[in-house]
# Entry
Amino acid sequence: MDLSIQIPDAPDVLHSFLPLFRVFKDGRVERFSQTPFTPPSDSEDPNAVTGGVRSKGIVISPENKVGARLFLPKTIKPDEKRPLLIYIHGGAFAIESAFSIQYHNYVSSLVAEANIIAVSVEYRLAPEHPVPACYDDSWAVINWVTAHAKDRQGPDLWINNHADFTKVFFSGDSAGGNIAHNMAVRAGQDGLGDGVKLEGVILMHPFFGDGKPNKLWELICSDFKGWEDPRLNPMAHPGSLSSLVCGKILICISEKDIIRESGQLYYEALKKSGWKGELDLVDIEEEGHVFHLLNPDCHRAGVLMRRVVSFLRG
# Structure
């Protein structure tokens, strides 16, 4: 995304973060990037993407319009249990969707390549729904999913029949990587329930603060707590990093990513924190932010996919 784009503000604009959105004095929000809906593959739409993977939508909190898209390999056998990935999309907390073509295709590809099942989280977007809405919504989806582990009598048969709750993974890209980290922190604080184990976390080009003012964060927070807020800048809280309950973490960055430093700082802070898990860093040369979503068929996207699949299978 070209952050140098110039869009003149109208006199009735209250505040803006270009080129993502601007908020007018009457409360209207104008986004400069639209996210067309892509149907799940189990729908009757002939254009729905399949790729050997079934998918369907789930409404989890109707009042908040919080939901998810579930993904299941078509070749899975009855009652076969597979690792469970909970994926959280990026988009600066303000754009994109689990139901967009990019995220539908990417999660479908992960499911097909790694032979796992996945839940892609649809959370409310800022600025209409400021932080902490994205965290609360993601945690609500996680709780809904892990509640199936208690007696395998949850509301969704795919999860009841096929989720291996001893091999749960959180992942996300950009702002979704930030949310995934914070969900891992909350899992350590509040637990995921009996029989559920957070095996690993994958952070793809994650967004974090560095202790300096960040206009986006200031605009989208309803409970602004400064630049050392652990949700924004976990590197300033080594005790929280050292207590992460997962067994392994994979951090993915790329050479030309405009927020490359976020992942690097997180990696270094986690190494120094005393965390006892397995930590790995993947650094892809010559590529920019979320290139694997924008150009999924390129060679380096394939390299990154293989590293992520290996992490999920290992």
Notes: The domain at 41-313 is CATH 3.40.50.1820 (Rossmann fold).
